[in-house]
Every structure is written in C-alpha cells, then in structure tokens.
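Entry 14. Ran structure prediction on the chain below.
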Amino acid sequence: MPESDLAAQVEDVLSVDPDEFQAQVEADAEVIVDEIDDGTFDNPQAIIGFEYEFYAVNAETSALQRVPRRLLELIGFEKELGLHNAEMSTSPQPLNPHGLAAQEAEVKARLSAAEDRTGSEGMRLVSDAMWTIPPEGETARRYLTDSVADRGVRIASNMSDSVRYHAMANSEASVGMRLEAPHVDLEADTVMPESLITSIQPHYQVPHARDLPTYFQYAIRIAGPLLALGVNSPFFPPDIYDSDADPEEILADGLDEHRIGVFETVLNRYGDDPDKVRFPRDVASVEEAVERVVEDRTIVPMPVTTSDRFDDEFAHFRLKHGTYWRWVRPVFGGATRSDANARIEFRPIAAQPTVRDSIAFQAAFAGLVESMFRREHPVRHLDWVVAKDNFYGAARDGLDADIYWITNSGEETTDHEAVYEDIFAHAKDGLQSRGLSDEEAAKYLYPLRQRARHRLTPASWKRGRVRERLDDGEGFEDAVYGMQAEYIERQAETLIDGTFADWVGRGDTELEREE
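Output, structure tokens:
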C-alpha cells in the first residue's frame, strides 16, 4: 500500500471520536452480558484453538527477511506487525483425541506447504521467540526504528500495512515505543520494536460462560510454571545492546524470556498505573471480565464496519479488546450464534523450536484447566501476588526460578520436582478425562516433561551455545549469530516431526524406554 494511502487511513482512524466509541463499547458490553444470561456463550464441549507466529529468514544466511505480501497470501498465512512476520490460526476443535490430533495435523500440513513455497524463494519460516540477525546490510536498530512522516503521519518503514499499528504512533493515547532491558535502551517513534518477538497463543473455550472466572483463576496460576518451561529469548540482536556492554555482564544480567519485557516496555506508557500490558488480576464474575475490557484505556478507537456475523452485534467491544493487553485474557466471540463462545487466550508462551513442542503447550494448558476446574485443585487459592511473582520470576530465571505452588494434597512447596509432578499429573488427567489414552496424553506432554526433568529449555540451550563460542574466542556478535544460525539449522531438521528434546539427545528413543 502506498504511504499516502496508509497515511490517509491513519487520519481516518484518528478522526474517530473517542467518547462516541466508548459509548458504543459500553452498549456492546450490555449485549454480551444479556447473551451470557441467555446461555448463548455456553457449549457442552471444551473447544481448543491455536495461533502461531513466525518470522522469515534468508535460507542461506539466516538473516531476517521481509515476506512479500503476495507470498503471504499464497501460503495462506496472515500478516502480523512486521514485514518479516507471518501468522497461522487453526480451526477450533473439540478437546478430545481427534481434536488435538486435528490441531497438530493442521499446523503441520499448512506449515509444510508454506515451507515448500517459501523455500523455492530462498527463505524459511522460523518458530522462535525473538530474532537476532537483522536483514543483510542493515542493523537491527535501524530496521526497528526507521520511519517516515507522510503529511504529518508517522509511518514505520518495516511495519505491515495494518492501520491500527501505525495509528498507535500517532494517537494522543500514546504507548511506550521503547525497549528497556539490562544493557538495552532503544527509543523509537512507532511500535515497530515489538516485531522482535513471536509467540504461540492457545485458546480454551469454557463449556459454561458463568464458570469463566474459575477457569481464569487457574490459567493465571499456571502461567508462571508453564512460562518457565517455555523460555526462549535470552538475547537481543547484538547491535541493540549498549556499545559498552560487556558480554559477561550481558550473560549474567539477561533474562531467559526477554519477550515479556519487550511487549511491556514497547506498549506501556511511562508513568501509567496500572500498565496496559500486565499480569491480569482475578475476576469475581463473568460480568467483571467484560467490564474490565470496557474500563481499559483505549489506545486506538477504530472506525467500525459490520456484517451479519453474530459478534458484530458487539463490534466496538471486539475492536477495543484488540488492545486489551493481558498475559491471560478472556475473549468473547463467534461468527454465528451457534458458534458463540467465551474462551481464555493464554499468551505467556513464546514460539517454540518445533511444532510438537508448541502443541505440547496447547495440550498442557487445556489439560490443566480442564482437570483443575473439575477436581477443584487448591492452587486456585494461591495468593495472586505470589502467582504474579512466579510469572516474572519464570521470565527472569526460567526453570531456575523459585515457583511457589500448592499441590493437590494442599501442600505448599517450592520444590521443583513436586511442582512439576503435580502439574504434569493434572495436565495428563485433564487430557484423559477428554478421552485421550494414557499413551496419547503422555506423548503430548513428553517434550515438556523432559524439559522439567533435565532443567533444559530453549533459553538455556541458547545460553550454552553462546557461552561455548565466547570461550572459543569469538566476539559477542559472532557468538550470537552463530548460535542463531545453529538454532535455525537444527529446526530445519526437526520442525515438523521432531522435538527440542532431539536437540539435546533426549528424543523419542528415551520416550520409548519410559513406556
């Protein structure tokens, strides 16, 4: 899209009256609550879905690469924030053996087809938490901060043509537009630095909307332990670090999941209390879950066009929900009345080294909330502040974090083995309650169980590779680039059919021994 056309669309967005928009959001909320009362959002089955984000690289050099829009359309993926991004969303399926298998099969089928097409054009789609090698001939800093002004409208040069993202840089309800992390301080005039990160987002549709608050409590409390298993972004692109940063200090001070901080510092405005992006509080009722969205600070009041979709009856609410940024958040939607659903979107987990690892998180999340709700697991009563500390501790230290937990027997513990024994037991129980056999449930959870058992995560693997390269005399930039190239090379061999456990010598052979 030409810059002038994009600027005109941004101007149209900025002309929307925020008070009128908010009034429509409030009216939409009443529609949702009425439909909840009527049972419209209830469904006897638990339904699961999945969003999966990727970035593209040059297949030969592993450098970041922009994806031509025509290619994105050909492979059936959706645009995301950056020109290098691509996103896939699966079709919702019941939580049962066939539904989970269908989710995995759909991801593999679509990704395999996409890889064939992108490969013929010399690029790869990478499943990872954060890219570290900028496009050839460019720096990451320039790529993330380059922008132009068109008739007074600020347009990010490497951002997709999504009007909402560009409008954020031009709205009076501003966002942070900076990166802050140990030895990193980058300022931008758009939200483009967020395009450093990619994630997976499992969705779980609750059978009865009125029960959403309880499921939500459990989702909040498992966020920390699952995040600890999935950490995958211990390094930024090297040229983003302060020029005088020492590699040893970067290794010592860095977080295992910088992705959390990137999302928060880019989108949170300095001085806001509370922040826009944050760890969510419990809700006492489904009405309160709806009201939280209504009361949230509006970033971009978008113009609304409607169709005959059921959820267009609350279209303004849905648009506002797009910037309701919480690490776990409720969602209300459905194209038709029969498809109407109240679900939980689980956002803490980065994109993982392989499809099986990513689907393992979907299975674990769904199994956990399913089992914990049904068995009234006492971790629901874990203090919210402790759950929040678990979350940010996991982002900082991964599986070395002290996770505070309450087991099914009511025992309070920080013992690593006790915590994850309880978690995997209930994840497996939840899957089996939905019809999976013991063997099927164990196979889905195996990649994560191996991480917990051996205290190995993608972040610790990355740290180890960089450490080895530094010890061999490489400079920091070469060490990070070398690690990233090895990550992409190993992923090329295992993305569809392998697991991260194969990278560290603990793959399916060990699973067979266990069985």
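Residues 511-515 have pLDDT under 50 and may be disordered. Will compare against last week's run tomorrow.
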